[in-house]
Amino acid sequence: MRLVVVVPVVLLALAACAAGPPPPPAAPPTDGSSATATATPVETGKGELRFTRIAELEQPVAFAVRQGDDRLYVAEQAGRLRTTDGDTVIDLSGEVSGGNEQGLLGVAFHPSGRWVYLDWTDADGHTHITEWAYDGSKATGRRDVLVQEQPFANHNGGQLAFGPDGHLYIALGDGGSAGDPQGNGQDLGTLLGKILRIDPRGGRPYRVPDDNPFVGEKGAKPEIWAYGLRNPWRFSFDRGSGDLWIGDVGQNAWEEVDRQPAGSKGGENYGWNLREGERPFRDGKGRDLVDPVIVYPLKEGGTCSVIAGYVYRGEKIPWLRGRFLYGDFCAGWIKAAPADRLDDAAEVGKVEQLSSFGQGPDGELYALSLQGPIYRIEAA
Question: Boundaries of each Glucose/Sorbosone dehydrogenase domain copy (predicted)?
């Protein structure tokens, strides 16, 4: 993810390292209407979507739901976990770092709903995965599950999600700077540039599942599930198939989405920094690299950073079922493509400063704008 500073607050701008900053954001809408200039419906030939604003928060960047709870939970980059009705659940605003790609970046609830996990960066810029016990009203019993030192201030990843297997998956970027100067993406001896898979309740501070792909391999971190990633800002599991979709923000030329089939045993190498998109990076030569399933050029039409969404499995928009939604932070477009025909993508809407997607307990989808609005995606 790439960010731009806009006074008086720091905004999460996902612009490419080599690209110029995106223009300053427009003022958030204040008229209370459901359709605004920042969320534009688009007719696709299959149907038309509407983006209905349901809440206005401060710099929303991540979304989660809790078992047995009909509230929607949103992480604000400035450090608070809130519900869409405005309640504050956890406040880390006095502890998080305020750099462009830092702050509170991810949230996930344990499948039981009894614990909540946040991904955030501290005053020194280091990543924490922190757990709280949560009874629906109070978050107590705080403990750090995992802490990762960060060599630079950018490329922190931030996504957290429990997979269909009940394990916690954690996205970490390559550590930052530009071009992965430390070679972390291809180094199995570091957690940086990886997606991790752990059981946060199986040990102290956590347990590594026995079937993780690098368990027992000399010199490799056993927590690693997949590697060769630059900055996997957002990933999601398809609640229908179990496939894992990963949006990996590019360097100079290409944005990409990777797909890991549900039957995978892990260990995929997605190529960074040997490759960006489908092209060699700095003459890097790959081995056993997994090709991305979606690639689009950086800067074309104002693009800067891919935002991975979800395969739609809801009931309210029949023509959208089975389509994978993704977008771009700077360009603002949102596209949907059949999961089995990804070249057949069509634009279905626009959200200025799209920071993330969310999925409700019923499979209906949401879009978050860094400007503040939370939109429910509906049939027009």
Answer: 57-369
- The Cα 145–Cα 299 span in angstroms is 38
**CB neighbours of 51 closer than 8 A, spacing ≥ 6?**
35, 39, 40, 41, 349, 351, 367, 375, 376, 377, 378
Under 8 Å CB-to-CB from 13, ≥6 apart: which residues?
A: 2, 3, 4, 5, 6, 21, 22, 100, 304, 329, 330, 353, 370
Distance CA 72, CA 90 (A): 14
Q: What is the DSSP letter of 29?
A: P
| Cα Rg of the chain (Å, integer) | 19
Residues with Cβ within 8 Å of residue 164, at least 6 apart in sequence: 237, 242, 262
pLDDT tens-place string over residues 220-251:
999 999 999 999 999 999 999 999 999 999 99
Q: Which two tokens stand for residue 109?
A: 């609830």
- Angstrom distance (rounded) from CA 255 to CA 15: 11
Token pair for residue 228? 């060769």
| pLDDT tens track for 86-125 | 999 999 999 999 878 999 999 999 999 999 999 999 999 9
Considering only 104-113, 192-201, 285-294, 319-328, which range has the smallest mean pLDDT?
Answer: 285-294
Tokens of 43: 């007719």
Given a cut of 50, whether residue 50 has pLDDT beyond it is: yes
Q: Quick check: 364 and 20 in contact, CB under 8 A? A: no
The CATH classification number of 4-22+59-321 equals: 2.120.10.30
Looking at this protein, which amino acid is placed at residue 314? G
- The pTM (predicted TM-score) of the whole model is 0.90
Q: State the DSSP H helix or E strand holding residue 50, giving kind and residue range, or none if neither.
A: strand 49-56
pLDDT tops 50 at residue 23? no
273 prior amide bond cis, ω within 30: yes
Domain definitions of the chain by residue range: 4-22+59-321
Encoded tokens for 332: 């603002």
